[in-house]
Design goal:
By secondary structure, this protein is an alpha+beta fold. Helix content is about 25%, strand content about 40%. The model has no long low-confidence stretch (mean pLDDT about 95). The chain binds zinc ion.
Length: about 130
């Protein structure tokens, strides 16, 4: 079963989409299986990371900013090559095990949509596959 979601982003940042993923799995009725969270964008990404300390989200972005600065030598006319690099390195999708009708996440894990070149209207998909109850 495929679910799609939309969101409006700010310039850069991580948006917690764990609730949407959990909701899609519940609605699918799948009890045991896998779920793929995918974003169809070239300057955004999906990741799983800590959901406890909000500073982790800020450090995640500032760490990527220093690792992938907006270099004057970049050729891409749109001027967002740093965002394209971040998107590929973090990745367009995550695969999550579904167990007991829920995403099998660690206590401190959340699923995040990562914006690297906002603000924009974005979307992401959740595909749930597996055995029904
Ligand atoms: Zn571009």
């Amino acid at each position: 079963m495929l679910f799609n979601f939309q969101l409006s982003t700010s310039k850069e940042g991580l948006i917690d989409i764990t609730a949407e993923v959990t909701e899609a799995i519940a609605e699918s009725g799948v009890n045991e299986g896998i779920c793929i969270v995918y974003c169809p964008h070239t300057t955004a990404a999906i990741t799983i990371n800590e959901n406890a300390d909000p500073d982790v989200k800020t450090d995640f972005i500032s760490g990527l900013d220093s690792t992938f600065p907006d270099l004057a030598t970049f050729l891409h006319a749109e001027g967002n090559s740093d965002a394209h690099l971040k998107s590929s390195v973090v990745g367009a999708s995550e695969m999550i095990i579904v167990a007991g009708g829920k995403p099998l996440l660690g206590t401190w894990q959340g699923v995040y949509f990562c914006e690297f070149d906002g603000p924009r209207n974005r979307k992401f998909y959740v595909k749930v596959m597996g055995d029904w109850k």
